[in-house]
Amino acid sequence: MSEANWYVVHTYSGYENKVKANIEKTIENRHLEDEILEVRVPMQDVVEMKNGAKKAVQKKMFPGYVLINMIMNDDTWYVVRNTWGVTGFVGPGSNAVPLTEEEMRPLGIKVEDIVVDFKEGDVVVVTGGVWKDTIGAIQKMDYNKQAATINVELFGRETPVEIGFEEVKKM
Q1: Residue 117 located in a structural domain
Q2: From CA 31, how far away is CA 45, in angstroms rounded?
Q3: pLDDT tens across 59-117, in order?
Q4: Among 10-14, 108-112, 142-146, 156-160, where is mean pLDDT lowest?
Q5: How far apart are CA 154 and CA 152, in angstroms?
Q6: Are 45 and 108 a contacting pair, CB within 8 Å?
Q7: What percent of the chain is modeled with pLDDT above 90?
Q8: Assuming Cys at both sites, which of 8, 29, 134, 149 could form a disulfide with 90, CB separation 3.0 to 4.6 Å?
Q9: Does any domain span residue 46?
Q10: Cα–Cα distance list, 109 to 16, 55, 80, 113, 122 (Å)
Q11: DSSP states of 44-59 as a string?
């Protein structure tokens, strides 16, 4: 059996949730649960100012697009491509191109289980990037993003900074 990958599907703008519901209904009706594993409309939390008051709302990260985790074959391609509201897969011509791990990481989609030897409260040193050789205590761990938030001293103040797991080493 082939490996499941994440694919991007272009939809009519504003119909992302309807497309998601239609695909999920088709998966259930055709018993494709083992081939089309997940359908997502990526959302992000945004703070809006309305009438002088701050309000937290969720907005679509990519209006007009839906993410699908599936095993690509003729049946799954046909089901997704012929769902009402879908205009096509993202890729050259009619070829669907799966997302890479690097493209998925900022979306908060878990690619693989990662085991690290540090936890919240541990003091770590940054081994790469802009904050190289900076020492800080881990305030928060985000396993989906594979990142840790540490406090670093910036202009005499403690400032939270998000660092990828691969750039952090326990002291």
Answers
A1: no
A2: 33
A3: 888 889 999 999 999 889 999 999 999 998 988 876 788 888 778 777 766 555 567 78
A4: 108-112
A5: 6
A6: no
A7: 26
A8: 8
A9: yes
A10: 18, 26, 20, 11, 25
A11: EEEEEEETTEEEEEEE
DSSP state of 106: G
The token pair that represents 101 in the structure block: 């791990």
Q: What is the pLDDT of residues 108-142, one digit of tens each?
A: 665 555 677 888 888 888 888 788 888 888 888 87
In which domain, by residue range, is 131 found?
Answer: 123-170
CB-side neighbour CA atoms (13 Å) of 68: 35
**In the β-sheet with 168-170, what is the strand arrangement from edge to edge?**
157-164, 147-154, 135-142, 123-126, 168-170
Question: At which of 63, 83, 107 does a domain end?
Answer: 107
Find out whether 162 and 156 touch, Cβ atoms under 8 Å: no
- Residue 31: inside a domain: yes
Q: What is the structure's pLDDT at 119? A: 83
Is there a contact between 79 and 24 (Cβ–Cβ < 8 Å)? no
Residues 15 and 87 in one domain: yes
Distances in Å between the alpha carbon of 9 and those of 23, 26, 50?
Answer: 11, 16, 33
Q: Tokens in use for 86?
A: 């879908």
The single-letter code of the amino acid at 124 is V
